[in-house]
Amino acid sequence: MVVDFSELKLNEESPIYMQIVRFVKIKMVNRQVRDGDELPSRRVLSAVLEVNPNTIQKAYRLMEEEGILVSFAGSKSLLQFNESLVDKYRKELLTVEAEKYIEEVKKMGLTAEEAVALVRENW
Amino acid sequence: MVVDFSELKLNEESPIYMQIVRFVKIKMVNRQVRDGDELPSRRVLSAVLEVNPNTIQKAYRLMEEEGILVSFAGSKSLLQFNESLVDKYRKELLTVEAEKYIEEVKKMGLTAEEAVALVRENW
DNA sequence: ACAACCGTATTATAGCAATAATACAGTTAC
DNA sequence: GTAACTGTATTATTGCTATAATACGGTTGT
Predict the structure, then answer these.
(1) B27 CB neighbours strand C below 7 A
(2) How far apart are CA A105 and CA A99, in angstroms?
(3) What sections of B1-123 are H helices per DSSP?
(4) What is the pTM of this model?
(5) Are A5 and A23 in contact (CB under 8 A)?
């Protein structure tokens, strides 16, 4: 019911508020959250992740603007999404990662098969 | 002789000074520069890339600290490296990209073969 | 030797992410 | 109904990246 954030390990490669949004989208894609599930309160999550409440608020605000979160003053914050949105996020997230990988290895002159082999080697 | 930076397209995903260092390393890996080749002066490169001279200085300083650049007051800035360093950079750069890709697609539950297929699809 | 370059250094300013400390009004649970 | 929570908002401060404007002394080419 209440989404678990204990597996979220923050890094310094991107803003924290974006990592939080991404974490939720990946949970959607993995069917680890369902439509109507509840997010922890801003204060609770800020304590769990040991980041400032304002940073959490920024993440939640972003999700509201994307239309996957609804919250009311004094009330719970609930996820809101349908299957077609999950499909869209899944495709988006995977394509972005593949394109990033491909772009970088192309810079170093790899062929498609070398890029594929490199994935297998490092898996 | 003088390293060409015209192909370097800056983005906002990482600090500019780091993108410059990475660009040089990739040129090393691709044999597009040789030991002893010259980098443009700080002022010239700052004009070419349209960034502040201090940003270029930060990049060059970093390369000096990594031991691939030597520069003297009033004189040219020269690349300095051997084959084993190229091999090291090649391996480092490729492994980092593969690991990043693998880590992300694993988060979304892909198998190795699905990850491989995704690379082929987007190539 | 002198002008035009070089590398190097310093100080100030701006924007963004994040922190810190509050404050206020709405809701929920007992 | 009251206490303990909620979302929301504001102001100040810090650190990092980048810009801006200089300044100084070394090297190079003519």
Answers:
(1) no
(2) 10
(3) 16-29, 42-49, 53-66, 83-107, 112-122
(4) 0.91
(5) yes
Half-sphere exposure at residue B75, Cβ-oriented, CA atoms within 13 angstroms: 7
A8 close contact with B: CB closer than 8 A: no
pLDDT at A72: 86
- The DSSP string of A89-115 is HHHHHHHHHHHHHHHHHHHTT--HHHH
Mean pLDDT of the residues in chain B: 95
Identify whether the C-beta of residue B56 lies closer than 8 Å to the C-beta of residue B49: yes
pLDDT score recorded for residue B44: 96
Going by their DSSP bridges, the two strands A69-71 and A77-79 should be labelled as antiparallel
Distance CA A71, CA A49 (A): 20
B104 Cβ under 8 Å from any chain A Cβ? yes
Best residue in A108, A110, A114, A121 for a mutation probing chain B (most B CBs within 10 Å):
A108
What's the confidence (pLDDT) of residue B1? 84
Contact A39, A28 (CB under 8 A): no
Contact B97, A104 (CB under 8 A): yes
The residues pairing with B70 across neighbouring beta strands, listed in sequence order, are B78
- Indicate if the alpha-carbon torsion angle B102, B105, B106, B107 is positive or negative: positive
**Could you report the per-residue pLDDT of B63-100, keeping only the tens digit for each?**
999 999 999 877 889 999 999 999 999 999 999 999 99
Sheet containing A69-71: give its strands across.
A38-39, A77-79, A69-71
Residue ranges in chain A modelled with pLDDT below 70: none
